[in-house]
Amino acid sequence: MKAILLLFAGFLAVLPAAAQCAPESLVRIEFRNLTPGTDPDSFDALSKVFYRQGAGMARWEEPKDTVNNMQALVVVRGEETWMADLVAKTGSHFVKQAGDPPLVAPVIAVQGFPQPVYAIELGCEVAYMKSQGIAPKRIQVQGLDYDEFTLAIPPLEARLLVRPDKNTPSALALYEGEILRHLVQYRRYDTGLPLDEALFSPPGEIQWDGGS
Hints:
6% helix
């Protein structure tokens, strides 16, 4: 159970960040993987939902995986983490130990990219680009205006598209030259939401074990 659910908890990876990502108010992000070669009908291409507030509260919601008959949910609140399979009604509870890393939530949690890729975090994408001294360039895509932040991460280039009227991301792409290596599309990005305590509490009707 633990090994399966950790597969869905990429945002808990032990990865260094330039600064602690800590949105002042609740952020809700709905996004999906549109990387070339990804089967659009596969589980990998389905939308996921991520909530974040402050440095220590997060919630990751997966859609149901019909192939493996499971549905993962991960809740982080302060020192505690709950990982559950909503289909099996089982889960694990973990308490953070001294020396454990802080919460890190990379937009792209796929292994194999240069380490700076993972410093671009859900909830802090624009702030991170600005912290790196990146000035956006105004471009048009399908008739719409976007601010494009471009960060060199040799041999890759990260390009973040932001709607200037909302200052929220629309897409994050990784290019190697002109070859698109990875693409995340933001389907919805809500900021400034009121805190909902229930989002960061463990779900009921789950049989919990103590973790390890």
